[in-house]
Design goal:
Elements (H helix, E strand, L loop, with lengths): L5 E6 L2 E6 L4 H7 L23 E4 L5 E3 L10 E3 L3 H17 L15 H8 L16 E2 L5 E4 L8 H8 L6 E4 L6 E4 L16 H4 L6 E3 L12 E6 L8 E7 L2 E7 L12 H6 L12 E3 L5 E3 L2 H14 L5 E5 L5 H9 L6 E5 L4 H5 L8 H7 L2 E5 L3 H4 L1 H14 L2 E5 L12 E3 L6 H11 L5 E5 L6 H13 L10 E4 L6 H6 L3 E3 L2 H6 L5 E7 L14 H6 L3 E6 L11 E4 L8 E4 L5 E4 L12 H9 L1
Length: 607
């Protein structure tokens, strides 16, 4: 691969170096020269529509947008002159006049608005033009965010983000003149959209209050918040989070742009479900009284009850069942306690025990996916379970023309992008010839397989897929990437903890008089365990059921003792993602009430 040609330009009298193909704006920023922007955003294609980044080039009478103009070797560029300042101020005044930018009434009136910032930077205290005050629609049908067309400056950052980052192209521009506006699926709303994934990337990249997070509205300026970098624990991808907090509450959550995993992008789980969903917290120990109801108790009282009951229980009738959302440190504590119980296990998704029991990690799985020219998804639904991975797949298909083959019994949001989508797998030769023809010529194929690939039909399909690559040139076989559903099931498997897909048979093996369930910060408080047949009845037969959870649920309501656990926002430790990266989990909030960390609780009770 040839080295890019080096070029030299002069910007505001400073000699700057760059490479051929870079824009004037890119070279200026690389050399510490600030040029104001609005529609430009690093990582998105340049549009050049707002004209705030205009510059002058010596020898040309025109001004040009620096974000969309390639730098020419030897060019002399001026970024700051009386002419440029006046043109930028004129453009900003027009932007303020076209829509209803009433800052005191805006949820983003907190110093985070790009338009407001540029207005202040250019000394605009009033405008010379008549306000148009058009009556623009407001869409509040989305669960987590809203769209106020009155504050939109048509910079298209949301449109380009939706297309180039999330890969769905839900948003576009429609209308002409003063009727020009952002549209959802051409004629839908966010609430009825069939393509929107609710990832919130459009909101994160909006420079005004046109797109805003409902839970973050009017919570104060981000500049006044504390910022903590941590890791999302909603799935095994392990995306980096940049969390803004104030007065021990979360103000907003964004992706960490420096994370090697997600590079700033998040799915709906990481961006919203981690904090914007209201759940009832467990903030102090609860003990079931003589009246059959759960009542608040002190930690010493709850501990004494648990220890006394455990001491009276036969060793062969005790069990410890843990969530796959535990940190690596809590997992090591569980591992040390194996001898204290007759049975110790972790509850995971169906078929995940076979996938994670002897864990395999695929280093640099996401870069491989970014570079793939053929992607096979087997037994996994990334669009439902791993949103950031699904975005990478859509980008590969829509932007690079990669082939996509999906083998899964259930439909998914990626099906519409697939060249082959087999919800029912045929074993006929004609079908597998079609598969082979689709994969023919693939130089960088990737096989992404999830828990359902461990089912009998999944194993058969996996064998057939691998045979499709037999006889091809060495080195062109697929990069095989396992993708579990649970957060740290690979970490549990690596620690040798038994993984359970069905807890009913585990409970029914023999009588159990004491069971401690660590639900941790499972979003449903561990209630999904009760969805399995017979589990509710089996748990009701346990003499002492202890549930360690962050949220109230149907499971905690069955317990004799409930212990308050920390959420992702209060934890400290590490998790291991599906690539084998050990990622930090840092506390972003101080503990509330009497909650304690999972590891601390386990060691206090059983150490």
């Amino acid at each position: 691969m040839s080295t890019p040609k080096q070029i030299t330009v002069t910007i505001d009298g400073k000699t700057c170096t760059g490479t051929a193909g870079q824009t004037i704006l890119e070279i200026a920023r690389d050399n510490g020269i600030v040029i104001p922007t609005l529609c430009y955003l690093k990582g998105l294609s340049s549009w050049g529509g707002c004209r705030i980044c205009i510059v002058e080039i010596k020898g040309s009478p025109k001004v040009v947008p620096s974000c969309a103009t390639p730098a020419m070797d030897g060019a002399e560029i001026i970024t700051n002159s009386d002419r440029l300042v006046q043109l930028r101020k004129c453009t900003l005044e027009l932007l303020f006049s076209e829509r209803n930018h009433l800052c005191p009434m805006c949820p983003y009136n907190k110093g985070d608005c790009g338009l407001q910032h540029q207005g202040l930077a250019h000394g605009i205290t009033g405008i010379r033009y008549q306000y148009l005050y058009p009556a623009m629609p407001i869409d509040l049908t989305a669960k987590y965010f809203g769209l106020d067309q009155n504050r939109c400056i048509l910079c298209t950052r949301c449109v380009r983000t939706c297309d180039e980052v999330e890969g769905v192209h839900t948003l576009d521009i429609a209308g002409r003149g003063e009727k020009n506006r952002i549209v959802v699926d051409l004629a839908a709303s966010f609430g009825t959209s069939e393509t929107c994934t609710s990832c919130g990337a459009c909101v994160a990249n909006c420079p005004t209050g046109a797109l805003f997070d409902k839970a973050a509205a009017f919570r104060g300026p981000l500049a006044s918040c504390q910022t903590v970098l941590t890791t999302c624990t909603e799935c095994p991808v392990g995306c980096g989070l940049k969390v803004f907090t104030k007065e021990n509450r979360i103000v907003n959550v964004f992706g960490d742009p420096d994370s090697p995993v997600n590079k700033g992008h998040l799915c709906v789980k990481g961006r919203y479900e981690t904090w914007a969903d209201a759940r009832q917290r467990v903030t102090q120990p609860l003990v079931r009284g003589a009246d059959g109801q759960l009542h608040p108790a002190t930690w010493p009282a709850a501990m004494k009850l648990i220890k006394d009951t455990l001491a009276q229980s036969p060793d062969w009738e005790t069990g410890l069942l843990v969530s796959p959302r535990l940190t690596n440190e809590a997992i090591q504590s569980v591992r040390k306690m194996v001898d204290r119980f007759d049975r110790v296990a972790a509850f995971v998704a169906p078929h995940e025990a076979a996938l994670c029991g002897q864990p395999e990690f695929s280093a640099d799985a996401l870069p491989k996916l970014d570079n793939a020219d053929a992607i096979i998804v087997l037994g996994s639904r990334p669009s439902e379970d791993h949103g950031v991975v699904a975005a990478r797949i859509r980008k590969a298909v829509r932007q690079r023309g990669a082939k996509l083959l999906i083998f899964h019994a259930r439909k998914s949001g990626l099906d519409r992008y697939a060249d082959i989508c087999a919800n029912v797998v045929s074993l006929e030769r004609s079908f597998w010839k079609q598969v082979a023809d689709t994969l023919a010529g693939a130089q960088r194929p990737v096989l992404l397989y999830g828990p359902q690939a461990m089912s009998p039909i999944g194993v058969t399909v996996l064998e057939r897929l691998l045979k499709a690559f037999e006889g091809q040139k060495e080195g062109t076989g697929p990069a095989v990437i396992p993708l579990p559903r649970s957060t740290n099931s690979l970490g549990l498997g690596a620690a040798g903890i038994e993984l359970l897909e069905e807890i009913g048979p585990w409970l029914d093996t023999k009588p159990m008089s004491f069971l401690h369930i660590v639900a941790g910060d499972e979003p449903d408080g561990g209630a999904r365990l009760l969805e399995e047949r017979y589990v509710r009845a089996l748990l009701s037969e346990v003499d002492c059921l202890v549930v360690q959870a962050a949220y109230r649920s149907a499971l905690t309501d069955m317990a004799k003792v409930v212990l308050p656990a920390m959420t992702w926002a209060e934890k400290y430790g590490t998790v291991t993602n599906f690539e084998g990266r050990v990622l930090p989990v840092r506390p972003v909030l101080a503990p509330v009430g009497e909650i304690r960390d999972d590891q601390t609780i386990l060691e206090s009770v059983f150490a």
